[in-house]
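REQUEST FORM: STRUCTURE PREDICTION
Request ID: SP-0412
Submitted by: Lab K.M.
Chain count: 1
Length (residues): 349
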Amino acid sequence: MHITAKRKFWRYALAIAFLLAALILLVKVWPIISPFLVAVLLAYLFSPSLKKMTDLGIPVGVSLPVLYFYLFVALYFILVITVPIILEQLRNLFAYLPEVFKSVSSFLDSFGQQGASGSISFDFQKVIDGIVSGMDERIAAYSAKIADLVFSLPQLLLYTVLAPILSYYFLRDRENIKNRIISLVSPQARPEFLRIAGEVNHLVREFISGYLVIALVVAVIATLFYWLVGIDYPVVLGILMGIGDLIPYFGPIIAAIPAVLLAVTFSPGKTVIIIIGILLLQQLDSSVITPRIIGDRIGLHPVTTIFVVMAGGYLWGIPGAIFAIPLAAVLILIFKYLSARVFAPEQEA
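STATUS: Completed
RESULT:
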């Protein structure tokens, strides 16, 4: 029996069309589906820990409450302790931004007066004046977003309660769910399906357990560094550095700009210390932290990485730039598989 490339092509095209239709439906019913997706994410994150605990002979009825205890402790630490500090520093930072821009403008103005022409200083001053004049509108816009978030708190609380309950059932019945999903695949295709699913799972876990841990380490180190140097708002600036570290090439540079601008308002010496410290932190990250935690396991070429980050940032902003790397790695893996299957030479069954 011959299976032609054309038949295989239409088979995979139909599967892709089905997936696209499912994604469109997912977007339409997102308010209803989102707590289920959060529950699936929690179950996915907890699954390795649950397996290790059950392998040690700890019953599922004991393992799950322990895991959820750690989850709620972490949520309490984030929501009750960390978030108020971040919000307070953000509020003070927004109020202090006009002074920062004026200090930077004065610094560049004095620097420009030493040159042959003051045109560069004048142009920059116009830009600064425009930024400062629109600062009140930006702060008002952020205040409106915070107000919207407050009004949506009942829905967030519902998710906070519903998602863990749903994830509990997903984790408890994870083997049955896994077996039912596998049963939807034909017996002949199951080995290949399991291989591809395993590689996708590996890539996603590398990002979650690798890059996010690296970002957390960088954020903690940067926060301590800013605090020791004596720069204002160390927690916010450290978190920015951690988020920026998730975006290859561009992220650390962009995340360092606020700290450098704030350092300019103190003294040239502190500015030099901040710049040197950030460069040393990036060197430590690239040569020690990242290789020790994950190495180079995503495996994208630097040119591909730059294009993917720029495309993700253009389409979906900062979240797109952050999650573009694992998404691209997964899509490339699936594309290579489909290409090999569709365009493979004809075989006799």
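NOTES: The chain is about 85% helix and 0% strand.
Reviewed by: T.R.
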